[in-house]
Write the structure tokens for this entry.
Amino acid sequence: MAITIVDNNERIISWNKYTEGLLNMNEKELFMRPVESLYPPDEWKKIRAENVRQKGMKYRLETKLVRKYQGFFDAELSLCVLKDNTENIVGSIGIIKDITKLKKTEKKLKESEEKFRRFYENAPVPYHTLSPYGFITDVNEKWCQILGYSKKEAIGKTIFDFIVEEERESAKLSFKDKISSKKFYVEGHERKFLTKASEERTFMINDFLSYDESNNVNSIYTIIEDITGCKKTEKEYHEKLEILNEKLEKKVQERTAEIKQLLEQKDEFINQLGHDLKTPLTPLVSLLPILEKTEGDPKSKEILEVLVRNVNYIKNLVIKTIELARLNKDSTVFDLKDLNLWEEADNAVQDQKYRWDEKGLKVKNKINENIFVKADKLQLDELFYNLINNAVKYTTYGGNITIDAHSDGDFVTVSIMDSGIGINDEQIKYVFNEFYKADHSRHDFSSVGLGLSICKRIVEKHRGKIWVESPGIGKGSTFYFTLKMSKNRGLINNQ
């Protein structure tokens, strides 16, 4: 900043180096220069009117000074009179600060404030400004229009005075959390207000917090969006949706009952048909093998072999179909007992020993002998028979079949793994469907496509699950199923 000393005749007699640069004058131009020449006429009159010298006072003011070749500039001037030992005024000292940039900044700030004020006042959405204690310090015209209050009625009151009574306490708690959050923006939340006409309206509140230099909240600027209409529409929509859901649920129940009835009729029809077919099949199954043995003509014998094979296929199909229909009935109840899992699996393995011996298969039963399950013996025998039979059928000569089990909390998971032809992802989707056959077994008269479907029904009747996994064609497959573990017998966990 520039420092100048003037004598009693108000002529410059001393100055610092910064003064020359600030006024754009050299030593010759400054020495004994009348101070009056540095000011516009109006500014000098203002200074003289203060009569600083006579009052013997310190004085600070904003004024304008001359800068050579560049006109006037804004300056802050601090003056102090100088006295001798006898208290006579001998001159004065002045400190000059260039505030041109500051004045421009203030001007821009003032213009910005005016623009903000115009925007705030004429905005198409309601605004209000709050103090850190929740008092309203300002509202715009839209706010007044929607809530029906004048500015005079709103400013000075707390925002809680305009919130419906049942939400005031929660609003106060929320406001405290907002103040202590140290956030610039607080995400929108719903709040109900009461208009001057006692009409309840719902607003979406969006708060912007302003902080002072000490990082304390000094103001809260709030935009409120009237969503009363949306909430009403939303409520009506939900009411209509509830009515529609009730109608749909009723319709689904009706359709479910119809489908259940149709399935029961289907199972009853299949059961009856199966029993009806068994009657004529019985003599055919008994007599055809006798005729085949007594027939001497090779061609006739070949025909009888075909007949026997087909009649046995039909017989097997009828038996399996009747079994599946029985399992589908809700009235079918299993006789659950505590069964040793290793023994049941071993019985099934031994029952088919002649078949896996013929193919040179190695069958291992690795189930822990202390595992007991809650199951129907006849159905568990059928389950093991079908799955082991399936493994033997599709495992190539010299292959391996491994039966194992481990506990999963309240259930036991049984696995039957083979090194056979495997299953692809597409086949896995349908393998438990009724009458499904993979391409390689479609013309196999020993399979009617119901074995795995029956396994699925047996497991589900035991409240268990069944599934199959395979790395792919030629890489074997593993069938899994779960059964409830017996609570009454010991278990050595085999994992």
User: Anything to note?
Assistant: The first helix runs from residue 17 to 23. The CA atoms of residues 101 and 107 lie 10 Å apart. Confidence is low (pLDDT under 50) at residues 439-443, 490-495. The domain at 336-484 is CATH 3.30.565.10 (Heat Shock Protein 90).
